[in-house]
Amino acid sequence: MTEQYRFAQYDALIFDMDGTLVDSMPLHLDAWEITSAEFGLPFDRAELNEYGGIPTRKIVAILAEQHGLNIDVEAFARRKIALYLEQIDKARVFPQMWELVKAYHGKVPMGIGTGSPRNQAEQILKSTGLDAYISVVVSADDVTNHKPHPDTFLRVAEQLGANPANCLVFEDTRIGIQAGKAAGMATLLATEGELQPA
């Protein structure tokens, strides 16, 4: 599975979390769908999936402006997050990603760069057991400029003591791939945990 990619040549492997490493995107999108209906915000599952990596508050503000709606961003975000947290322990690591993480654990430093808040990221890592394999996590709380800006991934590389130019980013969205490229890193698309041919 991983031989063709020669992952061992990199200083670090950096993973996005939701939709790349773990199958939490459906849980996020279900919470978005309910909250959008309650707040009168048009809901498009495919469009919202593409915003993966951007914190909820920022997405609500973007969508409200696009649709010319006056929405209480904080109230919306609180409700969406509360609904998501009710389901968060259902998140599972994608099988191919588990195999990769276990195969390179102790061989190549690994970190996570996520648009989720730290408490959500830590809860997922703990409930899935990923916390035993990956100790460096940069969350939405740790940077000001979120994806597609490179800051999240650059911070992970810094904490791992890795040269950004020799890091590989795994991402499932266009915005995440943009962020990895902006950081000067190699990028690999992983859709629902499946590595896509380069």
UniProtKB/TrEMBL annotation:
Database matches in InterPro entries: B-phosphoglucomutase_hydrolase, HAD-like_sf, HAD-like_SPP, HAD-SF_hydro_IA, HAD_2, HAD_sf, PGP-like_dom2
Gene Ontology terms, MF aspect: sugar-phosphatase activity
CDD domains, per database record: HAD_BPGM-like (cd07505)
Keywords: Hydrolase
One Pfam family this sequence matches: HAD_2
Family: Belongs to the HAD-like hydrolase superfamily. CbbY/CbbZ/Gph/YieH family.
Entries under NCBIfam families matching the protein: HAD-SF-IA-v3, PGMB-YQAB-SF
Name of the protein this chain belongs to: Beta-phosphoglucomutase family hydrolase
Native source species: Aeromonas lusitana
